[in-house]
Amino acid sequence: MKKAINILVSLVMVAGLVSCNNGENKKGSKGQGGLATNAAEKVYVAPGEHDEYYAFFSGGYSGNLTVYGLPSGRMFKEIPVFSQFPTSGYGYSEETKPMFNTSFGFVPWDDSHHPDISQTGGKLDGRWIFINGNNTPRIARIDLETFETVEIIELPNSAGNHSSSFITENTEYVVAGTRFSVPVPQRDMPIKDYKGNFKGALSFISVDQETGRMGIKFQLMMPGFNYDLSHPGRDKSHGWFFFTTYNTEEANTLMEVNSSQNDKDFIAAVNWKVIEDYVNNGGGTKMPANYAHNVYDHDTHLATSTLEKEVLTVDPTKVPGAVFFLPTPKSPHGCDVDPTGEYIIGNGKLSADLTVHSFTKMLDAIENKKFDGEAYGIPILKFEDVLAGTVKQPGLGPLHTEFDGKGNAYTTFFISSEVVKWKLGTWEVLDRQPVFYSVGHGMIPGGNSREPFGKYFVAMNKITKDRYLPTGPELEHSAQLFDISGDKMELLLDFPTHGEPHYAAGIPADILKKNSKQFYKLADNKNPYATLSEADARVERKGNEVHVYMTTIRSHFTPDNIEGVKVGDKVFFHITNHEQDFDVPHGFAMIGANNAELLIMPGQTKTLVWEPKQVGVWPFYCTDFCSALHQEMQGYVRVSPANSNMELSWSLGED
């Protein structure tokens, strides 16, 4: 009887929950999770309507950048950046191969971590987005008019380019810090001699305000710690940059133990304006360095690669007032600056509390020389003199903090798997929500600018487990969308994310979508291999090179029959898409090609190389469904023996 009563009580409780959920919670009500609310209404984007925000997620080990809509969580695009991408032929076409040139040779992959959108006056302007390659140290710039990677610059003297890519509030600089300190210049030396002999390079990369073109202005040669993450000053602290460090022990083995001995590591505060003046007045030392600078031109549709030979380095001890250390417990990871520029949050992974430094107190301590010793000639400020406050025991494993522009901060906790909302100034915990599981970064659109758009928070979780249908031992990572417009966070949506997102940058769609390029004007095509009319389509031989100048338009290639190609030739298909309509690319695939297909945008020219190895008649075709006669969009190449006397010929519409 007792068992029956318990079952009855349970059923009544469940019925009550269902009843409340269906009848009581209206749109905008604040529940404790997606099951307790009408969350679906808040993320629903009706057919034909657009999302409110673009969200750009780093792809981690995919090497690329993915674009999602918020609040729907729909993935719209994967932007190839550091990895070859057969979907479009990026990194396979002759025009884009130079984007992967480095001092190590052709490197068609990287580990992309932290995107950041260009700003003017501390506000997102939507011109470009920058992202770091963590493995082979590089910074890329993506044009947000075309959503294409247009520049990649390699960083010499750097290794594990992690505290990147973060930008100053007028996009004067993109800043990139090395995670791993290394010998500078690189040389053969015992690893056990690490301490005192390795350096950590912090690269300040200038950005041309009109073109976006990047160039390494200077590299600050810091002590041989690990430089983990960074953020620029905002508003009152504009002109400064802040970097978390760990391994101030300078250990080189069993790091999980030996680099966690000190009670406090540092946040390095760098006055880049002081260093900029020093450099502009002839300071710094040029040193030999090999690094690639790769640029894609939208007019020629060509990438070019230049190998640079030197870089300007700066010794921080030679520039008084340039660099100071802020003691921060313990093994800090995230380094975040609030929109006012007053508070610098150091998230110590092994600390029970959140440490918040005061920029105003920091300046006072510097002015009054309140130092607590020095490290390699760099003054260490006294912890108590720069401390703004402490958020007491908010969670376990704090990583990153974002801001909503309303005086609130949101910190992710990896170990306790939660997002915690707390108040700047009072350090009071206001709310906490569980996430599933092991959250890394979080993102509020514009959350690292002067003017965040404090409506949504996205948690980027490292472990998925049971959130989606199982697909074997590997699952996509999980993002969770929270409504933060009210006093309490409300879970709205789970959605899978590609690769391993480390960070994301969000921006209102209205800033970007009106500027999005729909097609390239054929008349502006400056590619040297462009074929601007069908009458100019032709095939030319230069020794064992065969150059096919081809056009494509719904629904045929010109030419579509080619003869006279021989085994051992190197065939260059230079293909120009003559469409002048939005979203009508054409594909090109050649049987036996050892690379990828091409996807050619309207008005664009791309080149694919094919080296035929067998005699025969080999087809090519369009890979992108373009019209009702898409299947008929094809052609043939006849390949004759290497010693054949067959002359080149080509045709269209002839027997």
Task: Write a compact overview of the structure shown.
By secondary structure, the protein is mainly beta. The chain is globular and about 90 Å long.
Walk me through this protein's architecture.
- The structure is a single chain.
- By secondary structure, the protein is mainly beta.
- The chain starts with a helix and ends with a strand.
- Strands 6, 7, 8, 9, 10, 11, 12, 13, 14, 18 and 19 form an 11-stranded mixed sheet that branches. The protein has a 6-stranded mixed sheet with strand order 42-41-44-45-39-46, with no helix packed on it.
What does the main sheet amount to? 11 strands, mixed
Report the structural category. Answer: mainly beta
How much strand content do the residues show? 35-45%
Count the DSSP helices: 7
Q: Distance between the terminal alpha carbons, to the nearest Å? A: 91 Å
Q: Round the Cα radius of gyration to an integer and report it.
A: 28 Å
Report the helical percentage.
under 10%
Number of E-state strands: 46
pLDDT averaged residue by residue: 93
Question: What is the molecular shape?
Answer: globular
Q: Which consecutive residue ranges, at least 5 long each, have pLDDT under 50?
A: 1-36
Name its key features.
single chain, 655 residues, mainly beta, 11-stranded mixed beta sheet, 7 helices, 46 strands, 9% helix, disordered N terminus, Nitrous oxide reductase, metal-binding
Write the layout of secondary structure elements.
Elements: H1 2-23, H2 39-43, E1 53-58, E2 65-70, E3 75-79, E4 101-102, E5 105-106, E6 116-120, E7 123-133, E8 138-143, E9 148-154, E10 163-167, E11 173-177, E12 182-183, E13 198-207, E14 214-223, E15 226-232, E16 240-246, H3 255-258, E17 265-271, H4 272-280, E18 285-297, E19 302-314, E20 323-328, E21 332-337, E22 343-348, E23 354-358, H5 359-367, E24 371-375, E25 378-381, H6 383-386, E26 387-391, E27 398-403, E28 408-413, E29 418-423, E30 429-434, E31 439-443, E32 456-461, E33 477-483, E34 490-497, E35 504-508, H7 509-512, E36 538-542, E37 545-553, E38 556-558, E39 561-566, E40 570-577, E41 586-590, E42 598-600, E43 605-610, E44 616-621, E45 634-640, E46 649-651
Parallel strand pairs: 14-19, 37-40, 39-45
Antiparallel strand pairs: 1-2, 1-35, 2-3, 4-5, 6-7, 7-8, 8-9, 9-18, 10-11, 11-13, 12-13, 13-14, 15-16, 16-17, 17-20, 18-19, 21-22, 22-23, 23-26, 24-25, 27-28, 28-29, 29-30, 31-32, 32-33, 33-34, 36-37, 37-38, 39-46, 40-43, 41-42, 41-44, 44-45
